[in-house]
Specification:
Helix content: over 70%
Oligomer: single chain
CATH superfamily: ABC transporter involved in vitamin B12 uptake, BtuC
Mean pLDDT: 85
CATH topology: ABC transporter involved in vitamin B12 uptake, BtuC
Order of helices and strands: HHHHHHHHHHHHH
Largest sheet: none
Number of domains: 1
Radius of gyration: 20 Å
CATH class: Mainly Alpha
Structural class: mainly alpha
Shape: globular
Length: 338
Amino acid sequence: MNTYSTHRYANFYRTLGLIAACCVLALLMVGSLKFGLHTYSWNQITDSFSNMQSNDAIIIQSVRIPRALIAALVGGSLAVAGALMQAITRNPLASPSIFGINAGAAFAIVLSVGFFQVSSLTQFTWIAFLGAAVSSTLVYGLGSLGRDGLTPMKITLAGAAITAFFGALTQGILLGNNKAFDQVLYWLVGSVEGRTMAMLQSVYPYILIAWVAALILSPHINVLAMGDDVAKGLGQKTVLIKFITAVIIVILAGGSVAVAGPIVFVGIIVPHIVRFFVGIDHRWVIPYCAILGGILLVGADIAARFIIMPKEVHVGVTTAILGVPFFIYIARQGRLLK
């Protein structure tokens, strides 16, 4: 079998895999509507769209549908952001949560609530974007200091430092401001519980545009992932590509934090799983991350409802439980470049 035929069959199976993943995501989203403290039958779910006045319909329409959609959108966004970060930094541990982007967005929202009494969902979105942009700039700047410039090890340490810095500032504001503490405590843990369709509507246009931009940019990311020298030798404008990629990452991470809080480890777990199955071609990595990230977060949210039934565990706690051993495994592989 020649190389062309092999490549064609590989793309065929990748397409089938993507379709299968979409089906799994759809089933999990139906499961998100069905399972919980109150389990609904399929007939009750379908009837809720025709009889909007019943209690079951109100819960399904106003609580469970937004929850499933937000989990899918946020999970996919964090996974795509993690894949992009790992590509442009060539660091297997890169993700919005590890590199301080989530912490910066969370700090900006807590600051706005604690000192400026901001409560608008639209304002939260732009504030989260600003916080994510500031923190990512700080991480990049700190990681670039020194003679050898930006290295995977230095940017990881810079991300850990910025995460700790913004985390300490956030805790300080919450301890000194009871009102801010009450308003954002449930949100800081990272959760899709209690989110509304209005919150989703405030962020999804920007996130969908960022998804499309990431897919369009994916061939350039493939080149950039080979290293700056190789990319420049092939005529790529590396500074421009990195800047556009950084903007996409900020939108994806900032929008996710604005609606669901700082959910951790999704951006690490999913890209590694995706590359294991489909390789390093970002024309496939990006769409697979968007779907598998949604699968992970929707599935984790369903599982979180049963851990301490009748109460619920926040999905941010569930992803942390899954992510810590995965993080340790990746670090022990010795693939963190010096």
